[in-house]
């Protein structure tokens, strides 16, 4: 057997795990590892400019590819800088392994230079964390970390590696385990057949059914099964912000997404339904609005890999714990073989009602002759890229406009921080996507507030040639905050203005990229085309948009799903 | 309602803090918590008493089960079970108090395990209610110090919590 140092074992384990790209930033406690990285060329490392960005890059990569992302940082500040990124991945169940250097074992607990209890600090925001106690344990620890991160309900796993675990001149026998067995970790491999049968019976007997799909469908790679089942039944389908792309949004059965800024028809259909089939969704408060008023006439079938997501906020009538793909497959074969068919008359009446809600056009905006509306920018981008780009976003009004007006027909294309709502996510996430999808169009739709939270990454983009397109919907304000202040605080705009914005054109040029500024409506289309035509350049498109626009529909706080504002003056 | 949840946990550093962290992070109550190794050195047994609605208790057990180091758990209060807690109490004991305390200790089936000219140290095992009852009976004015272990529990009959 081969003898390797701990650091070499770590890198070799990554190779044997099939990891090709890692994102990180070096420092004292990780230097043995960085040296091992230098002496090989299979695992490629991208050097970011801030560790938070490394995590978002790995996250963007994971969301676009469905494979776990990998991060490498040093102890102390390197490790603590990753926390926001880890929490972001945790809230959205993104598979990821974060390797952190740590001070030598002999120094732990002595407040040594750059010592932070990363196991303790990360605990509430990881699926699991592991620390290495013997160099020989490194291969198994790495295998375990990827296994836990990417199976069951995925999530981030932190591995803490004291510096003496990676000492160069201490060598040990290396072999990479094919499998790990964890007696206390056995995610469900299939759903309960009895429950699935019951669910199908209820589904076929429903008069006003609706399918409510979440990010779990994308994470669980079940979009095909979901699409087939939905089409077979002919039922309406809506999805969450995280589920965008799990069902083609141009299809007539699709109602758009639901919840706080969801469509009128999706929220109305949910509220008036008699049966909700929830698939890989978690009845988040941004979906349900006031739980006690949630869909009063609906019975609920809930499929999820995580039992703790079921009946957490809304009680399920038929809980099904299992991987969404296998459960949906079973449902499909039961529906195909069933003697009963959905009640055609009831369904026709239900669709008639839904079409009336649709005709009401809940999602609309007033166009203007002189100012540019953010919605029209996104609509235009959607058209110019045929709805096929990867679109990452930050957090705020621009995020909601991007999600509402870009027409996604495929999964893994819409990439945003839905659970934690992390400003600063968009650019590094886009970089993670572009890095591994060099031929695809990657847009980062952002705001002038959010982009400044990780703008230093423009430098990384230069170093590694990552020609993403940054679309800055510049409303010169922390727009979403301002919208809430307009609605709930009599327009007292406390700290929601971004005064003294930088000259983004000069800024991006300083980083070696191209800037385009759009101020007039007539310039919008030609300049966007110009930007998109520069395939091999990072282009920062700074678009001056209507400063007073609000995002609608918006659910009325503490109301039911159907209580919405449709414009500044219209409430239903 | 009060519940006693008994957990088999991997005997690894950090496992306990994950359990405790979960309770504070998700705003669950911990009334008592005990933990010690078992006959199998790879496992610890942890007993936690908590209160909450059925919905909360269901979440607590599900969330505990999600922790990678939790091997198995049972809500003992779902079936008949035995629960015990151990208490050591230091009592002022002079003059006529001494006989009085001795009588009360006997009634509660406790033992006086240490004696000085002015102090008795009493050991008492039983349900938490019984321990409360004893402290009440001797009167808090005479109590110098109380230390309780927290509840341990086990199911009655054939049922066992093991791998
Ligand atoms: C890191 C972080 N801090 C604060 C917030 C709260 N927040 C949500 S939206 C928003 C405003 C975002 O402004 P901008 O990026 O310009 O987007 P806009 O709403 O104007 O489109 C803020 C401050 C957040 N989501 N994330
Ligand atoms: Mg803004």
Oligomeric category:
heterodimer
Number of strands of chain A: 22
Instruction: List the domain count of chain B as a whole number.
Output: 2
CATH class of the largest domain in chain B: Alpha Beta
**Unreliable runs of chain A, pLDDT <50, ≥5 residues?**
none
Tell me, what's the shape of chain A? globular
Helix content of chain B: 25-40%
- Tally of helical segments of chain B: 4
Overall pLDDT level of chain B: 96
User: Poorly predicted ranges of chain B (pLDDT <50, ≥5 residues)?
Assistant: none
Would you identify the CATH architecture of the largest domain in chain A?
Answer: 3-Layer(aba) Sandwich
Biggest beta sheet attributes of chain B? 5 strands, antiparallel
Portion in helices of chain A: 25-40%
User: What ions, cofactors and ligands are bound?
Assistant: thiamine diphosphate, magnesium ion
**Proportion of beta-strand residues of chain B:** 35-45%
Order of strands, main sheet of chain A, comes to 3-2-4-5-7-6
Q: Largest contact between protein chains?
A: A-B, 18 and 19 residues
Structural class of chain B: alpha+beta
Tell me what you see in this structure.
Chain B: One of its GO terms (molecular function) is acetolactate synthase regulator activity. Chain B: It is an enzyme of class 2 (transferase). With about 575 residues, chain A is of the alpha/beta class. Chain A folds into 3 domains: about 5-175, Rossmann fold, CATH 3.40.50.970; about 195-360, 3-Layer(aba) Sandwich (Rossmann fold); about 375-550, Thiamin diphosphate (ThDP)-binding fold, Pyr/PP domains (Rossmann fold, 3-Layer(aba) Sandwich), CATH 3.40.50. Helix content of chain A is about 35%, strand content about 15%. Chain A is built from 21 helices and 22 strands. In chain A, the strands form 5 sheets. In chain A, strands 3-2-4-5-7-6 form a 6-stranded parallel beta sheet, sandwiched between helices. In chain A, strands 11-10-9-12-13-14 form a 6-stranded parallel beta sheet, with helices on both faces. In chain A, strand 6 (about 130), helix 7 and strand 7 form a beta-alpha-beta unit. The mean pLDDT of chain A is about 95. Chain B is elongated, with a radius of gyration of 18 Å. Chain B is about 30% helix and about 40% strand. The model of chain B has no long low-confidence stretch (mean pLDDT about 95). Chain B has 4 helices and 9 strands; from the N terminus they run E-H-E-E-H-E-E-H-E-E-H-E-E. Chain B has about 160 residues and is of the alpha+beta class. Chain B starts with a strand and ends in an 8-residue tail after the last strand. In chain B, the strands form 2 sheets. In chain B, strands 5, 6, 7, 8 and 9 form a 5-stranded antiparallel beta sheet that branches. Chain B has a 4-stranded antiparallel beta sheet with strand order 2-3-1-4, with helices on one face. Chain B folds into 2 domains: about 1-80, ACT domain (Alpha-Beta Plaits), CATH 3.30.70.260; about 80-150, Alpha-Beta Plaits (2-Layer Sandwich), CATH 3.30.70. Chain B has helices spanning about 15-25, 55-65, 95-105, 130-140; strands at about 1-10, 30-35, 45-50, 70-75, 80-90, 110-115, 120-125, 145-150, 150-155. The interface of A and B includes residues 119, 120, 124, 182 and 315 of A. Magnesium ion (MG) binds near residues 475, 478 and 479 of chain A.
């Amino acid at each position: 057997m081969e003898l390797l140092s701990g650091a070499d074992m770590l890198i070799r384990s990554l190779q044997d795990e099939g990891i090709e790209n890692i994102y990180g930033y070096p420092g004292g406690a990780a230097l043995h590892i960085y040296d091992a990285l230098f002496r090989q060329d299979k695992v490629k490392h991208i050097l970011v400019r801030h560790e938070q960005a490394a995590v978002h890059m790995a996250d963007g990569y994971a969301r676009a590819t469905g494979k776990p992302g990998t991060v490498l940082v040093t102890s102390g500040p390197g490790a603590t800088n990753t926390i926001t990124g880890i929490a972001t991945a945790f809230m959205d169940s993104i598979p990821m392994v974060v390797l952190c250097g740590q001070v030598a074992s002999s120094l732990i607990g002595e407040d040594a230079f750059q010592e932070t209890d990363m196991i303790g600090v990360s605990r509430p925001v990881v699926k699991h964390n592991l620390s290495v106690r013997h160099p020989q344990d490194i291969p198994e620890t790495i295998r375990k970390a990827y296994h836990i991160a990417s199976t069951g309900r995925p999530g981030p796993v932190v591995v803490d590696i004291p510096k003496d675990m990676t000492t160069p001149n201490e060598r040990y026998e290396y072999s990479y385990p094919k499998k790990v067995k964890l007696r206390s970790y056995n995610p469900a491999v299939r759903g309960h057949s009895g429950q699935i049968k019951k669910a199908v019976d209820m589904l076929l007997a429903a008069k006003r059914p609706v399918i409510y799909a979440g990010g779990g469908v994308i994470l669980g790679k079940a979009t095909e099964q979901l699409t087939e089942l939905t089409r077979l039944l002919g039922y309406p389908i809506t999805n969450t912000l995280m589920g965008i792309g799990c069902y083609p949004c141009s299809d007539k059965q699709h109602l758009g997404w639901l919840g706080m800024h969801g469509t009128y028809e999706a929220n109305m259909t949910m509220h008036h339904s008699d049966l909700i089939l929830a698939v890989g969704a978690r009845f988040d408060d941004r979906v349900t609005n006031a739980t006690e008023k949630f869909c009063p006439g609906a019975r609920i079938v809930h499929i999820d890999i995580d039992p703790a997501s079921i009946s957490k906020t809304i009680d399920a009538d038929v809980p099904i714990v299992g991987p969404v793909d296998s459960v949906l497959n079973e449902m499909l074969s039961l529906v195909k073989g069933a003697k009963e068919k959905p009640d055609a008359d009831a369904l026709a009446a239900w669709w008639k009602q839904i079409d009336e809600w649709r005709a009401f056009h809940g999602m609309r905006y007033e166009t203007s002759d002189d100012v540019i509306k953010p919605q029209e920018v996104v609509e235009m981008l959607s058209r110019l890229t045929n709805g096929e780009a990867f679109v990452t976003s930050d957090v705020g009004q621009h995020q909601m406009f991007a999600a509402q007006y870009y027409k996604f027909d495929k999964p893994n294309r819409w990439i945003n921080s839905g659970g934690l709502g992390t400003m600063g996510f968009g650019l590094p996430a886009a970089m993670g996507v572009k890095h591994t999808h060099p031929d695809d169009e990657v847009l980062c739709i952002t705001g002038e507030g959010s982009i400044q939270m990780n703008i230093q990454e423009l430098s990384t983009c230069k170093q590694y040639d990552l020609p993403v397109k940054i679309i800055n919907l510049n409303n010169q304000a922390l727009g979403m905050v301002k919208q809430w202040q307009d609605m709930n605080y009599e327009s007292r705009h406390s700290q929601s203005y971004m005064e003294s914005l930088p000259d983004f054109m000069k800024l991006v040029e300083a980083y070696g990229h191209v800037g385009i500024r759009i101020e007039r409506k007539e310039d919008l289309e030609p300049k966007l085309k110009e930007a998109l035509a520069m395939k091999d350049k990072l282009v920062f498109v700074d678009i001056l948009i209507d400063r007073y626009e609000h995002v609608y529909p918006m659910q009325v706080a503490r109301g039911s799903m159907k209580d919405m504002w449709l414009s500044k003056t219209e409430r239903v | 309602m009060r519940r006693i949840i008994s957990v088999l946990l991997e005997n690894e550093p950090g496992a306990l803090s994950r359990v405790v962290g979960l309770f504070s992070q998700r705003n669950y109550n911990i009334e008592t918590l005990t933990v010690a190794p078992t006959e199998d050195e790879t496992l610890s047994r942890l007993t936690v008493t908590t209160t909450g609605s059925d919905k909360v208790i269901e979440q607590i057990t599900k969330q505990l089960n999600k922790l990678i180091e939790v091997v198995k758990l049972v809500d003992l209060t779902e079936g008949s079970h035995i629960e015990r807690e151990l208490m050591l109490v230091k009592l002022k004991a002079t003059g006529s108090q001494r006989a009085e305390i001795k009588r009360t200790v006997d009634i509660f089936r406790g033992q006086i395990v240490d004696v000085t000219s002015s102090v008795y140290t009493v050991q008492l095992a039983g349900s938490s209610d019984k321990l409360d009852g004893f402290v009440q009976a001797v009167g808090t004015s005479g109590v110098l110090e109380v230390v309780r272990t927290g509840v341990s529990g086990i199911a009655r009959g054939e049922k066992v919590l093991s791998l």
